[in-house]
Amino acid sequence: MNHLLRALAPVTDAGWAAIEDEARERLAPALAARRLVDFAGPRGWRHSAVDLGRTERVDATPAPGVAARRRRVLPLVELRASFTVARSELEDAERGAVDIDLAGLDAAAKDIAVAENVAVFHGWPAAGIGGIAELSPHAPVPCAADFQDYPGAVARGVEALRGAGVGGPYGLALGPEDYTSVVETTEHGGYPLFDHLRKILGGPIVWAPGVEGALVLSLRGGDFLFESGQDIAVGYEHHDADAVQLFLEQSFSFRVATPEAAIVLRR
Predict the structure, then answer these.
(1) How large is the average pLDDT for residues 31-52?
(2) Mean pLDDT lowest among 107-121, 173-187, 203-217
């Protein structure tokens, strides 16, 4: 038995299969950061820190005449989002029902995906994580309210990265409102804006819940480093006669190795 305690849950194989299928379906499109940064792992639940390859001086030492330095590491952080499933729904899953109510899981999946995206793109100071947008040294590219002009802003962002010596291909992370506007906009002549932007970038356009505005970032590799300890998994907390309390849990760290490899688009 591991820390997820799934063996203690009153959930059958069919119930776990339904829960895991729903979790994958909800998480896959929402985990935007993983599609745009370098993902390493999972290293396992016991993996606790990332070696930064740096040291800091320790002034007090056990003996005179001895110098000391301490290795610097970035601790992984743990995220947990709890949810409840009715036992009657789990019993129906065992009977073969394919429409069981997993609304609590859907909400938890959204919450943990947004938390991860926010940490990567906008930072999490309390956890020692600097965000891509906040660490970028480039002045944000202004965007007009009219999305017909959006290709020009994206092109200026790409050019700024190239001018800083950062090669492509490039990706575009769009907050939900901007993503919807891009998908719905057709340029003069009927050409979809989405397709035009992909030609400029040479890489993907990603729906990124939790992101404010948009970011253009290089996908050449080595610039943005996400390390997974425990990848997102379902675990068990407790149950009563009516419901089972479960959770989604993960551990990870994130580092920006090359701040100049991304630029913010701001409206």
Answers:
(1) 96
(2) 173-187
Q: For residues 153 and 193, is the Cβ–Cβ distance under 8 A?
A: no
Residues sharing a CB contact under 8 Å with residue 252, sequence separation 6 or more, in sequence order: 41, 76, 77, 79, 116, 226, 227, 228, 229
Q: Supply the pTM of this predicted model.
A: 0.92
Type of residue numbered 122: H
Looking at residue 146, what is its pLDDT?
Answer: 80
Q: Are the C-beta atoms of 82 and 107 separated by less than 8 Å?
A: no
Contact assessment for residue 150 and residue 185, using Cβ atoms and an 8 Å cutoff: yes
Query: What pLDDT does residue 232 have?
Result: 98
Comparing CA positions, the residue from 200, 214, 228, 226 lying closest to residue 262 is 214
Contacts for 232-237 with beta carbons within 8 Å, 24 or more apart? Answer: 232/23, 232/27, 232/112, 233/4, 234/4, 234/6, 234/16, 234/19, 234/20, 234/23, 235/3, 235/4, 235/5, 235/6, 236/4, 236/5, 236/6, 236/8, 236/9, 236/11, 237/5, 237/82
- pLDDT class of 191 with cuts at 50, 70, 90: low
